[in-house]
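Per reviewer request, we include the raw input and output of the structure prediction for the construct analysed in the revised manuscript.
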Amino acid sequence: FLGLSSFGLLFVVFYFTHLEVSPVTGRSKLLLLGKEQFRLLSELEYEAYMEEFKNDMLTEKDARYLAVK
């Protein structure tokens, strides 16, 4: 019982320490990752995609690139 109540207490503390208020709507939302962790994860994903598709990228002088631009 003590272990279960300790887990519940930790969950409640985690929940209230990871809430952020949206500046647009004013509503609270739960963030599992902090802004810094999310930024780092985004950079890692970006680098992985760039490495994976580096041979499929068009140059800025390619006609197809210029047509879309």
